[in-house]
């Protein structure tokens, strides 16, 4: 809305006698009214800011993952270096969050922004605090340590029923930008590692991508990554069991 209003102001400055002036003024009034309406329904929920405030109509709206149970009109507090009330939607460093609470939108490096547990219905459980690290149990079952200075938001991400949505027809998948998928065993051996063979044949190997990377829950993480030493226990795969 700020960009649109600025463009309309520039238009009126360049062409003050334009016959479309009443229409432009009408659009300005509509945009300002819509901006005020949104400002009453949303609060600023920054990831990198030091504090939060209700949005007046002339400031930028910041929309982030909506915590489960957050109501319209409630004040959300954020802090980068101190504790705030441990209520749903409030954000602060992990060192100040009480043990046993569920958190989401967790940073992996201080100040980088939330990277873990941002999907609908997900959260991580804060189980331990030792030295400069805290221990989190992630939705996949992985247990890993994160710097205590990293921030997180208390509560679960809302809209947990998103996974139960039935699309109903193939066209909706196309509207979402998903193109049809061809099975690897239906391709030729030039196009896919599972392709080729006489007649109907199995791939003869574990499921992989066209480039040979394990798929369907296979281990793909580089063991030489620096963050590997922070993982206490890897996730558990239905097909491959406990990953190492």
Give me some keywords for this one.
two-stranded antiparallel sheet, 7-stranded antiparallel β-sheet, 244 residues, alpha+beta
Round the mean pLDDT to the nearest integer and report it.
Answer: 82
Please give the number of β-strands: 11
How much is the radius of gyration in Å?
A: 25 Å
Global shape = flat
Structural class: alpha+beta
How much strand content do the residues show? 15-25%
Descriptive account of the structure:
- With 244 residues, this protein is of the alpha+beta class.
- It is 16% helix and 16% strand.
- A seven-stranded antiparallel beta sheet has the order 1-8-2-5-6-7-9, with no helix packed on it.
- The protein is flat.
- Mean pLDDT is 82; it is low at 42-59.
Write the layout of secondary structure elements.
Elements: H1 2-14, H2 21-41, E1 91-93, E2 102-104, E3 106-107, E4 114-116, E5 124-130, E6 133-137, E7 143-147, E8 151-154, H3 170-175, E9 231-233, E10 236-237, E11 241-242
Helix pairs in contact: 1-2
A few lines on this structure:
Helix content is 16%, strand content 16%.
């Amino acid at each position: 809305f700020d960009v649109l209003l600025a463009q309309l102001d520039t238009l009126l400055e360049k062409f003050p006698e334009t016959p479309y002036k009443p229409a432009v003024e009408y659009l300005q009034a509509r945009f300002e009214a819509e901006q005020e309406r949104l400002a009453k329904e949303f609060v600023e929920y920054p990831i990198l800011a030091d504090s939060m405030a209700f949005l007046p109509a002339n400031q930028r709206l910041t929309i982030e993952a909506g915590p489960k149970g957050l109501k319209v009109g409630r004040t959300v507090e954020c802090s980068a270096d101190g504790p705030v009330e441990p209520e749903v939607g409030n954000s602060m460093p992990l060192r100040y969050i009480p043990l046993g609470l569920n958190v989401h939108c967790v940073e992996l490096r201080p100040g980088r922004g939330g990277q873990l547990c941002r999907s609908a219905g997900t959260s991580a459980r804060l189980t331990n605090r030792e030295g400069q690290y805290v221990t989190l149990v992630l939705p996949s079952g992985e247990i890993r340590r994160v710097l205590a200075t990293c921030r997180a938001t208390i509560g679960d991400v809302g809209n947990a029923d998103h996974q139960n949505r039935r699309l109903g027809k193939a066209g909706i998948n196309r509207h979402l930008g998903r193109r049809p998928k061809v099975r690897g065993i239906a391709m030729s051996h030039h196009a896919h590692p599972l392709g080729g063979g006489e007649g109907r044949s199995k791939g003869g190997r574990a499921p992989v991508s066209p480039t040979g990377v394990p798929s369907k829950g296979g281990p793909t993480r580089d063991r030489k990554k620096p963050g590997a030493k922070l993982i206490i226990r890897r996730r558990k795969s239905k097909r491959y069991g406990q990953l190492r």
